[in-house]
Structure formats: C-alpha cells, structure tokens
Amino acid sequence: MTGPAHVNAVKISTNDSYYAALNAHRNTIASFYMASAEMPGGKPLPSISFNGNQIPNAEAMQTLFEQQIPPSHYQVQCYDCHVVNPNYIAEGTQGWPAKSGKNMTILVAVSGYVKYGDLKEAKPRGFSESFVLVPNPAVAASKQRLKNIKEWLIQTQNFRIVV
Hints:
By secondary structure, this protein is an alpha+beta fold. The protein is built from four helices and eight strands, in the order H-H-E-E-E-E-H-E-E-E-H-E. The mean pLDDT is about 85.
C-alpha cells in the first residue's frame, strides 16, 4: 500500500531533523508539532509526555530544552513505523489524492542512546520514544511540497529514559 512513503516520512521527520534539532537547533523544536487543538472531551493536542511529565504544548517543550535540559546528543539506533489511520484528512483541507499515500497518521517507535551534559564525559543512557505523526495542513492545503515546511507534524509524543 504505502510502505515506502511512510517509511521515508518517518526518516525525514524524526531521525534526520527532529533529533538534529534536539541536539543543536533547539530554537526550532516547536515547529515540529501540530498547532494547538483539543480532542473531543477537551484533551489538548499535541499530547506530549517527557519522562512521565505532561508538557502542555509545543512551546513549553521548546522552552524545556532551551532552559532546563543540558546540551544533549541523541543517537537513534532503530525506528519502526506503522500506519494508524490510512484515511486521515487534515482539518481545513481536502487532503491529498488517495493514491498519494499522504492521508494517514503514522505511529513511530524510536529507540537509541542520549548523552546529557559534557558530551565527552557523559555516559550514554537508553531512551524509548513514540510519536504519532499527522500531515501538515499547510502542505495538504497547497497540494505541493513547500520549501522549509515540514510535511509531517507531531500530534502525540511519549519519551522515556529506559536505562
């Protein structure tokens, strides 16, 4: 069905850019998340859990990394992805043509190592992280690839240090 499209989306959205932002471009972290919204029942989106702590929004996640988390180096060891909803249409858009493989939500599971603080002296710690990625409505509305605009945004995230 959409195997290669969603695998490439995951690689580009997480490994190639998100973790690079956590390592060196923390002022861009909020741009990886969907705009604030509410689920039915009032639960806020994006839903972000960082090591058991609920983070209220993307801006707070960026502030956490800019002001509280010491310098870090994330090294992804593996990731896996699965289509959760193959018929997702971003709010306020008509979506992509069905054959594009872009009208979906994607579950991403990532594991690896992270070092915090003095990167030469810090001991690597294992981490596990999961994301649900959704199409960026700005891209879906334009029906074309926009320069410097992320095609996929984080709707849900759960990060945990495991070792």
